[in-house]
Write a structure and sequence with these properties.
alpha/beta, seven-stranded mixed sheet, binds zinc ion
Length: 307
């Protein structure tokens, strides 16, 4: 009996993080899969959006080929969890470390692009969920980078402690605050709802003698139950998300900006497919429609709201 028990404990320790993901996957399977919305000809449900964002456990941990997006912005994340490297002459910025176990994968992608992982000076994030910022402590440990986070997300970030490590916060940011490194300025916009401090990043990128507005969106995916403060947050965030100038839209999951299709087009050496003002609002359209559908369902009398 003893060896079996020991094996169980070891298995539990090794697979503790994947088990957490399995729990998240199981939780979404148990939630009622409604409402359904149709946006620009495609039908979405809460479960289909979650599946689109996360893919399989393998997708979450397998590197997507690292590549340049535009100007000094590169993709270094996995198939379904975004991580962006912004390169400057004074060092680099990493946006979203994703799961801690993905950090070596991200490091390898950074190196494949010809950059040094140790040149990361600043770590930023989209929002305080483990699939986006669990790796912050390890990246700081490996690079000495400063971790900066929107003040409203700090309590939730501090609760993310892989292996008991304290979540580093070197600087608290506030809505509209710029983060400068070398010749690059990123601006932190508070777009709460998905988390209290969900942060949309904007910056300018130069390519072919032109300057483009880049928006790196935080998730706008609403929860299944909306409370009055969260409703207010989303209403504010959708409005702000629509007001930001945008030529290039990125997001915390590649499916939110059709990265796979754009990457495929990138190989044909035509115009940069990431410059795509047409679909800048697509993700906002989807999530805002879902938000209003959830709200409408929630406000119906209990008898007709249940399936
Ligand atoms: Zn999230």
């Amino acid at each position: 009996m003893k060896p079996t028990r020991l094996a169980c404990i070891v298995t539990l320790a090794v697979f503790a993080a994947p088990a957490q993901d399995a729990r998240a996957q199981a939780a979404i399977q148990q939630t009622p899969d409604h409402p359904a919305i149709t946006v620009h000809g495609t039908t979405y449900t809460p479960r289909s959006i979650f599946a689109r964002n996360m893919g399989t456990p393998e997708d979450q941990t397998t590197a997507f080929p690292p590549h340049k997006i535009i100007g000094n912005i590169y993709y270094v994340g996995t198939r379904t969890l975004s991580s962006f490297l912004v390169v400057t002459p004074q060092g680099n910025i990493l946006i979203d470390t994703t799961y801690e176990r993905n950090v070596p994968t991200i490091e390898k992608s950074v190196q494949q692009l010809g950059f040094r992982f140790s040149d990361i000076k600043i770590v930023l994030g989209s929002h305080a969920h483990g699939d986006h910022q669990e790796g912050d402590a390890l990246v700081k440990q490996l690079t000495g980078a400063q971790v900066m986070a929107m003040a409203e997300d700090v309590p939730a970030l501090q609760a993310i402690k892989p292996g008991g490590k304290e979540h580093p916060i070197d600087k608290m940011l506030h809505d509209g605050e710029p983060v400068r490194l070398g010749d690059t300025t990123l601006v932190a916009h508070l777009t709460p709802g998905h988390t209290r401090g969900c942060t949309t990043w904007t910056m300018k990128a130069q390519e072919g003698g032109k300057t483009y507005d880049v928006v790196i969106r935080c998730s706008l995916r609403p929860p299944n139950m909306l409370t009055p403060p969260v409703i207010d947050e989303f209403n504010r965030s959708f409005k702000l998300a629509r007001s930001l100038p945008c030529d290039v839209a990125l997001g915390d999951h590649p499916s939110q900006f059709n990265m796979q299709q754009k990457y495929a087009k990138l190989q044909s050496r035509g115009p940069n497919p990431f410059i795509d003002a047409e679909t800048c609002k697509l993700e906002v359209d989807i999530e805002e429609a879902m938000f209003h559908a959830i709200l409408a369902e929630q406000q119906k009398p209990a008898t007709s709201a249940s399936q």
